[in-house]
Amino acid sequence: MENNRVIIYDSTLRDGAQALGISFTVEDKLKIVRKLDQLGVDYIEAGNPSSNPKDLEFFEKVMKLKLNNSKIIAFGATRRANIKVEEDMNIQSLLNAGTEAVAVFGKAWDFQVTEILKTTLDENLSMIYDTIKYFKQKGKTVVYDAEHFFDGYNANSEYAMTTLKTAYEAGADAICLCDTKGASLPSYIGKVTKLVCQKISCAIGIHCHNDNGMAVAGSISAVEAGATQVQGTINGFGERCGNANLCTIIPNLQLMMGYECIPKENMEKLTPIARYVSEVANIIHDERAPFVGNCAFAHKAGMHADAVNKNTSAYEMINPTVVGNQRNILMSEVAGRSAVMSMINMVDSTITKDSPETKKIIERLKELEYEGYQYEGAESSFELVIRKILGKYKPFFELVEFKVIVDEPTVSSVSSSAMIKIKVGEQTEITAAEGDGPVNALDSALRKALERFYPQIAEIKLTDYKVRVLDSNFATASKVRVLIETSDGEEVWTTVGVSTDIIEASWRALVDSVEHKLIKSQICV
Amino acid sequence: MENNRVIIYDSTLRDGAQALGISFTVEDKLKIVRKLDQLGVDYIEAGNPSSNPKDLEFFEKVMKLKLNNSKIIAFGATRRANIKVEEDMNIQSLLNAGTEAVAVFGKAWDFQVTEILKTTLDENLSMIYDTIKYFKQKGKTVVYDAEHFFDGYNANSEYAMTTLKTAYEAGADAICLCDTKGASLPSYIGKVTKLVCQKISCAIGIHCHNDNGMAVAGSISAVEAGATQVQGTINGFGERCGNANLCTIIPNLQLMMGYECIPKENMEKLTPIARYVSEVANIIHDERAPFVGNCAFAHKAGMHADAVNKNTSAYEMINPTVVGNQRNILMSEVAGRSAVMSMINMVDSTITKDSPETKKIIERLKELEYEGYQYEGAESSFELVIRKILGKYKPFFELVEFKVIVDEPTVSSVSSSAMIKIKVGEQTEITAAEGDGPVNALDSALRKALERFYPQIAEIKLTDYKVRVLDSNFATASKVRVLIETSDGEEVWTTVGVSTDIIEASWRALVDSVEHKLIKSQICV
């Protein structure tokens, strides 16, 4: 193994699965295994077949998969105290999983041996020795996880080191130091890992938990100190504050520090795979996550956005596409003109940042944001603002009147209805619709009225609806900001509306939504 | 200053406000300032009055607040190249903000001086010197932020150090080293900070960004190397992957490392304040956040939960109540009954965790949570659920009918009206009210109708109203969860309602809100 090679050991399906809100089905796990193999991690920790029927079924199926890069590793405890290793059913179960490698965890902290396992320090050493020896004799590769190692070392460094030496003498191929409580400082982890690397000759690994918010840094620190294996999970999923996040560690080690973790050509799969795993786990993807979050390369503050356009290395640690992500330039109340220019130029390419129109548009943006509008993620509404200022906008219809009525108790199965009257040119259309709620009713009524004049309206469908209340000091008299996402099967666009009245705020977002479609189809005609 | 004192410098309202999806109103900022003062941070960075109308208004108001612990600090750039500092309008604006302290940022990286600012290395030094000197002469405390310091030091250590020395000679009270790109390893930050502390005699600070997922560790590393000021934001809010998270840094420094950051007695306010800021920012609180997330002390895996109950120091780094958090044993476990018991016992102290009623309540809770109810922060609604199951509830009124009408265009200054008919005993009351929006109208109408029977209703006032949309897959047919906060001047309580119809969801929360008041006044009578 070259000096710069770091083994990536993924525990998404074992440690990660212990996270609050995560419950993987067998199918979910198999999907994730395929993705992890595509990414190219070295080990995929898959739990213990004897844990429960689901895990047994999973093992049977996963051992039939043909994987190109990764090895499945079964995970379980050292033998129980005071019994022969051959007689421990969990050990037999690990053996029968049929994996090339097994991971065995044992105690390194004297206090835990006596108070939690309720056995002697010597018996614990035998448990470690016997278990690892047994698996080595059966031809397995063995990774030994020293649980609570850093706390154990702090309490009784001699005993902690003895547990490691015992594991080494029994033939462990790698010994992984676990910061199980997640409280160790990276500097301490580095110091202790260095000492261990000096005394133990096999590969040393690191397994951090994120309770102190420094699992990634602790892992990096251990590698700097000589560790050559890092255990963690995709997106840092795990109990409490999670495990060390491999999606942060891998780019740091490989792109920033020159280590080799996964095949080079697989790095661009990182973001898609991270998002995929969030999707399968049914967890909202952390958009602020380093490297793989949507915001990771999104610049907002005026000065920064300006500089990014001028010289990306000034502000970006890496090119986002390297990890399969993209640069997302946004606008805000402090945004410089350059941040808005690309949007303006999409409407009119002749406008420059010194044009008087640009100044007007930025002024208008500031005013609107002061009123509560937010165009990030609602660019289609901002495009309409630009069009209106540039004189490139003509209303498609005129609202004469609408009335929305909410009834309680409901006499039919729906509680809301909306009546609407619009004018297009000289023609008037009046219609009504029902809905599950007042906005649903109004949306249906508007589109029903417009379809008569603009058949393409039939192609659009609302796909998302968000409400944010602003200025909560004024309670129900406060403003609301409504975001509507619409799709016509081809494109998806988001529009925004703000008002003290939720119906009116929704109305504004709805109007922008249909107008975007109509402008689009007009341009295409 | 004692050796272990670390100054906490909060930039939630400046750097944090640059985060995607965050747009603080003036009121939001003032609320957060009060909370930050309660927490006891040393500095609250409040932006630059000249940025936009909102910030100007904010400064005028914040300077009138009476703060007990924190100092407001205005933030801006060094003077522009080739003009006198007195002639720079942004500098004048900072001066006129009237704060005791100002934060000035300038370039430390030679490449940025020439390529981004497009000026000479010497002029940059003059810009730094002139600006700091100017503010010192005006009697301000000055914090100098060396932008991109670590990258600048890596590129040209001599020039980077010269910029710091210049700042020091001009009289800077503290010099903050900024890892603006967020790519520096904690070990590098520690190494360089140590060198700076050896060469520069004033206080040294650290300002990390989280692009590499190690902003907290970088900050900790800098403090270990001699820094005595840490800049960051609540919940790590900020551009891209965020800023250094003060809610992680403060407990690490103070509880794990023996430093003094905030008054001891304020540490238990950390979690409530973190959650409050998330609420005001309208950002979903990160429940996996160290120390202040709901999951931070939540144990799920069978083995760990068992061990936690046996011996908490085995698995918990600190007692959660120290940071105002609680151990969250999930409802899905037997141990979860205890989490609900205290609420049940507030209604009926004879109920135990083995009572059949407890089981019924937990079952009902699971059903309601499945439907989208969430009682965290809406305990008053859950209290009503408990009362209904325990038979300690009698309706105060019966709804006969309500109708809410929203009109556009508005003929008067309000767009919504609500008609309501209720029955109390044998008597019927029908009335109507207007409002800025449908919920406002309905709320006014309900209270108007109830006041005839229950005069104490006049004491209550809605103080906050939040809407969350669930199941966004189904667009406007999706469910909404409405949270209503009500006050009677003495107590503040929050209630919740869920429905596909926002009016109905609001109705349910409103009913719970008034019933809580009526039960309360009934008990007091």
From TrEMBL, chains A, B:
The Enzyme Commission number assigned here is: 2.3.3.21
Please name the GO terms of the biological process aspect recorded for this protein, alphabetically.
isoleucine biosynthetic process; L-leucine biosynthetic process
Q: What is the lineage of its organism?
A: Bacteria, Bacillati, Bacillota, Clostridia, Eubacteriales
| Signal peptide per UniProt | none
From the Swiss-Prot or TrEMBL record, give the protein name. Citramalate synthase
SMART domains attached to this UniProt entry: LeuA_dimer
Alphabetized Gene3D superfamilies for the sequence = 1.10.238.260, 3.30.160.270, Aldolase class I
Q: Which reaction does it catalyse?
A: pyruvate + acetyl-CoA + H2O = (3R)-citramalate + CoA + H(+)
Is Translocase set as a keyword in this record? no
